[in-house]
Amino acid sequence: MAPTDPRPFAAVDLGASSGRVMVGRVAAGTLDLTEVHRFPNTPVRVGSTLHWDILALYRGVLEGLQAAGRFAGGPPASVGIDSWAVDYGLLDADGALIGNPVHYRDGRTGSATAKVAGTLPPTALYAVTGLQHLPFNTVYQLVAAQGTPALAAARRLLMIPDLVSYWLTGEVGTELTNASTTQLIDPRTRDWSRPVADTLGIDLSLFAPLRRPGDRAGQLLPEVLTETGLGGPVPVTAVGSHDTASAVVGVPAHGDRFAYIATGTWSLAGLELDAPVLTEDSRRANFTNELGVDGTVRYLRNIMGLWLLQECLRAWESQGRTYELDELLRRAAESAPLRSVVDAGDPEFIAPGRMPERITEACRRTGQPVPRDEAETTRCVLDSLALAHRRALMDAQRLSGRTVDAVHIVGGGARNELLCRLTADACGLPVVAGPAEAAALGNVLVQARTAGAVAGDLSDLRRLLCETQDLRRHEPMGDRRAWERAEARIADGRDSHRHSEGDKDEQPRG
C-alpha cells in the first residue's frame, strides 16, 4: 500500500430502493466509509408503464456530492458511480434524454422472451453470452422496444450509471461490468458479440465505447461544480459500475476458496472465477457469467432476495399494519423452522404486489402449511432464502469445479443476523457477515487504486478490508438433514409446477 495520508473519495451507490453518496478515506492501513447523503428511489407508474424517476435520482446525486464536499472539507479526489444492472436511458441526436428509463420490473418484455428464443435458441445464446435467463435482461428490453418511436429516435444508449456519469461530465462510455448484464457481451473476449446483436436486429452503434474499471471517465462539468459547490477539477473514475461487481471487490476474503452472497433487494450468490462456465449444464442450472474487476468473472445465480420481505412489509403497511423489523425478526426467530418454504428463485415473485398472498398460494399449491401470521411469513421468507443460497452455492461448486471453505455475506442482508445464521446452517459452512456497504467500499477502492492512494491486486484490496472492517462470523449449527428434506420439498414443488405448465426448458429456473 502506498504511504500517503488518507484521501477522500466519493462513491455514488444507486440501489433499487434508495441511493446514497458515501465518502471513503483511504491510505495505507486506513479505510473508513461515511454515508453523507441518502435519498429514496421510488419508481413511478405512468399509464401502464413503470419508470425510474431518473431526474430525482440525479438530484439526489448532486445533493450528495455537495454533502461530500462539506464532509471532506473540500472536493473529493475522485467520484465513482455504481447502480443496478440491465436498465438504460436513450439519448437523441442532441444528447437529450428520450423519456424516463423503464423499470426492469415493468411487464413489457413478456412477449420478447419468446421472440428472442424463436430467433436465437437459448442454448446458442448462452453458449456465446453465458448470461442467466431473466426476462428483464437488456436484450429482451431492446427487442421489446423495437419499432417504438423512442428507439427509432435514439442515437445513444447509456446504462444507468453511465447516464449519470454523462450528465456529470459530458462524456459518454459504457462500463464493462454493467455492459456484461445486457446479454450482448461475450465473456471470453470481454467485448460485444456482434453475431448475437446482428441476429436479433440490435444496433451496437447505440452503445458508447467500452470502459474498464479504473479508466478515467472525465471530470465534473463547470455547471456541476457550481451546483455542488465543489472546487475543481474533480475527476470521475469508472469503477465496477454494476453494484454487484463493486460489492464483490468489497468482499473481505482471504485467498480464492470463498463464495459470496451480495444481499439486498436481490441475492447474488456465487463464486469469483478466472474464466466463464458456458456449459449446457450451467445454462440449465440458470447461472450467469457477469464480468468483474481485474479480468474476473462473477459466476452467480440471481435469487429474489430481500425483495420478498420488502414487498411483504409494504403490503402489511398498506393494510395499516406497521411492524418494526427488529421485532418481526425476533418473532420469526422464535417461529418453527422450515415449517413451510417456497422457491425464492421462482419468476412468479418478480412483480410487485400481494406478496404475502402469493407466498401463501405457493405454500398451498405445494401442500405445505400456510403461514398463520406475519412472523411465520417472515420465517418462511428467510428459510426459503437460506435454502436458495444453499442450492446456488452447491450448484456453483459442482459446475465450476471450485470448492469453498467459507461464505461471505455482504450488502444489506449482512445486518440480518437471522438470515446469516440460517444461511450458515443451510450451507453447512461458516458465514462471514459484512461489510454491509460492500458496493460503496469496492467503488472507493477502485477509485483509490487508480489515484495511487493504494496499490496492488484484488487480494491486496481485500486485505485492507479484513484489517479495517467489522465482521461477524457464524458457524453452522443444527441438523443438516432438515435442510435436505426442505430442499426436497422445493424440488418436488418445482417439478409439479413445471409439469402442470408443460415443458419450460427455454426458461430454466434457478
TrEMBL record:
As given in the record, the signal peptide range reads none
Spell out the Gene3D superfamilies in the cross-references. 3.30.420.40
Q: Does the keyword Lipid metabolism apply?
A: no
* One GO MF term attached to the UniProt entry: transferase activity
Known EC number(s)? 2.7.1.-
Q: Please name the top-level EC class of this enzyme.
A: transferase
* Domain Carbohydrate kinase FGGY C-terminal: from-to ranges: 259-450
**InterPro entries named among the record's database cross-references:** ATPase_NBD, FGGY_C, FGGY_N, Rhamnulokinase
Which controlled-vocabulary keywords does the entry list? ATP-binding, Disulfide bond, Kinase, Nucleotide-binding, Rhamnose metabolism, Transferase
Which intervals of the chain are annotated as region Disordered? 487-510
Is Nucleotide-binding among this UniProt entry's keywords? yes
**What region holds the Carbohydrate kinase FGGY N-terminal domain?**
11-250
Q: Which family does it belong to?
A: Belongs to the FGGY kinase family.
Protein known as: Rhamnulokinase family protein
Species: Streptomyces sp. 900116325
